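Question:
Write out your own:
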Amino acid sequence: MRDFIIPQYPPGAEPHDDRDMGTPAKVGLPVTLTVDGFAITVPEGTSVMRAAAEAGIMVPKLCASDNMEAFGSCRLCVVEIEGRRGTPASCTTPVTEGMVVHTQSDKLRRMRKGVMELYISDHPLDCLTCAANGDCELQDMAGAVGLRDVRYQAPEDRTLLNHFARRDGAGVNAHYVPKDESNPYFTFDPAKCIVCSRCVRACEEVQGTFALTIEGRGFDSRVRAGTPEDSFLTSDCVSCGACVQACPTATLQEKSVIELGTPERSVITTCAYCGVGCSFKAELNGDQLVRMVPYKHGKANRGHSCVKGRFAYGYAQHKDRILKPMIRDSIDQPWREVEWPEAMAFAAARLKGIQEKYGRKSVGVITSSRCTNEETYLVQKLTRAVFGNNNTDTCARVCHSPTGYGLGKTYGTSAGTQDFDSVEQADVVVIIGANPTDGHPVFASRLKKRLRDGAKLIVVDPRRTDIVRSAHVEAQYHLPLKPGTNVAVVTAMAHVIVTEGLFDQDFIRTRCDWDEFQFYVDFVSDPRHAPENVELLTGVPAADLRAAARLYATGGNGAIYYGLGVTEHSQGSTTVIGIANLAMLTGNIGRVGVGVNPLRGQNNVQGACDMGSFPHELPGYRHVKLPDVRAIFEKAWNCAIDPEPGLRIPNMLDAAVEGTFKGLYCQGEDILQSDPDTHHVAAGLAAMECVIVHDLFLNETANYAHVFLPGSTFLEKDGTFTNAERRINRVRKVMAPRNGYEDWEVTQLLANALLKETGGAAWHYTHPRQIMEEIAATTPSFAGVTYDVLEEKGSVQWPCNESVPDGTPLMHVDGFVSGKGHFMVTEYVATDERTGPRFPLLLTTGRILAHYNVGAQTRRTDNVAWHPEDILEINPHDAEQRGVKDGDWVRLASRAGETTLRATLTDRVAAGVVYTTFHHPATQANVVTTDFSDWATNCPEFKVTAVQVSPSNGPTDWQERYSEQAERSRRILTAAE
């Protein structure tokens, strides 16, 4: 494939080497050797193959790849080494000082040609019609060794395997293995397999799933996914694509390549799914996207991917996508397609009329955690500089605002402390309220590799997730706490550490406020926090909790990773503070392998927070009440900024029901499906006079919209995302926006339409780089961030400024941002949501690997093959009591509402706890969640809802009414009408 990679590197900047160097890079003392007369110095432990590649000499290979350890099975990479007998494999031979290597000789050429001849004799010679033609390593290596003829012929039965199943007197040939096309994204053709084991090794070493094996011997050797009864679809394969990427032939091949042909060019961009922020090469033919390949130099993913980023991009071309603006006077009318100027004039007139009638604070915006930093920045600027208020909120607050509050109060900054590479140095990993194998699978693969290398694992979760126990990985301790008792568990761990003298006194005296620590010690030492005294409350065995606390405190580098199972509680902020306390207690902060690390749910949750999407904070987490901060933006924006904080989403909805909030611009969020208490959200939206939805599809929120502005996908825009490790990654335009505009341009069109109404100065951005320049000029942590810097360095982690021009991979190395670290009391306060006779079970919610958030994107891809509907997980004990069998329809009811879905019986959840996802609008799982929220940030308490489960015959009356209303709301007038 001809590879024209964007970016074009500036003068003086070296582009990354995309060659496969055969074996991984090593770290060690320098060793000098000679390869084909060239002296080269490489680190100790480097293979001869990689050393040769560093000198520009590529040794032929088939089984070797630089993202896996050397295997030495293909024998194509043999070399000669002076002073040694034989011809060792260069991939498995480490360099030594003074070694003299020859990679070319008549003897080596004969050997390699003979090896390749054997491979080709057992391989179909259909290169001209093969999907991998021109992108096949076997083909390339045959050319490299000069193979022009094959003397051998495969056995008759193998020939049949390679070409077709021939029926004769004995029936179907016993050795024939059909092509496996069960996976929606790739095929497995055993006829083309050379049994190099690269796919098996990639599944083990890169992904960590161990789904593939080699079965049989000799000509009967073949790759097997799962058991003999399994296909790739039904096996443990998670469709991450590592095996497909590793395959040197067309044995494992993307169906998109089979259909569309070998791609000819590529653009480097960033995935728009979870907060890991994987870098990809979008490979194209013309402007037709053929495949997404994980970029080996991506600093977050290091060349790996998951099923969503690798394959689930088809929603960009889905038939449901809306490409023209639409308007309607009331939500009971059908939509009417219009041109952009009419849509903008309609929206601006409506919003202006509302402000004239109800006041300037009667309208607001919701920014998106899926959109770029630049787009999000403009949306919050719209409400502050054009609407004249601070009514801006985001799903980033709905999911992770306790992170900002808790870490801000204790450490002085609202973000995680480490980069993802740091996990490779961790000795003890604590995962609390997170399910990385499903929610952050690429990070989970790196974590599992570290666990297989000997790190210890503690999981604090009501549910037994895959990371607790899976292939070659098992947690030392699983603490299955009762939902809502996070604070009690974390404080009990601190109690053990303090009362048993396991805290790091030197670190605390040097780095933390000692007086605050003494006060904290008095609090946490109280016997009421002992594991034995909280066991009945939390459900966690005291002995396990004590042992887990001791392991974290004494096991070496301790790293904590947490997710929405921590933040989406009424005490979410308290739990984050408690986690920060644990890290300070043990000195596990400020170096590689430790830290406190929130796993962000969506691709730009961190960026949405950074860009000032909160009603009380301007970009950079600075309060709107501070005159000096407002002055910076008033000068940049040439306007006055309201010093009073605005409304959060729940407050907007409350005010709408009360009649004082009447207009909303909602970019890239589906609050009707994703926010709690669906009935209340619907009532608030229905009460508004102008709801503008800016999105790809007519989502559930659009049922109540008056204006629909079509959005652009991440493939159609330029900008940046900021991932969970504070890494600012470039998003590059792969194709032209199908709707005509990038999302930032749509926001600018709306702003200018409103400014025209008021006579204000128009916005004149022509490229997102100008928006980033404004961000850098007004936001200290982004002061050194420019597109030129990002092109040169690939990515940077904020803070990035004059003092740290290369960014900051590790936070709080020499001191906390706040100066001293602050210990804070973490008193457990039970949630107001309680179980009782009517609602005796506790519901907690989460995600599944195949889908993303509300599923608007992934439901419009073949990912539905794995998860076509939301399922309720229920313990067999609870199911038996209710007469529920596996696969039955059940009614899930709470004090807020009810819905129905199918049940699956599992011991993943303890008795008394049920679990479901929220990916499918037919279920609308959030109709049962309540409006309780975090005491400090108003973050909704999604993870604790008292419910009852009972047998059902199918959808509830409400579901049927909702479905009918949604269908009516999505009517679009045709041209004839």
Summary: The two ends are 49 Å apart (CA to CA). The CA atoms of residues 672 and 701 lie 5 Å apart.
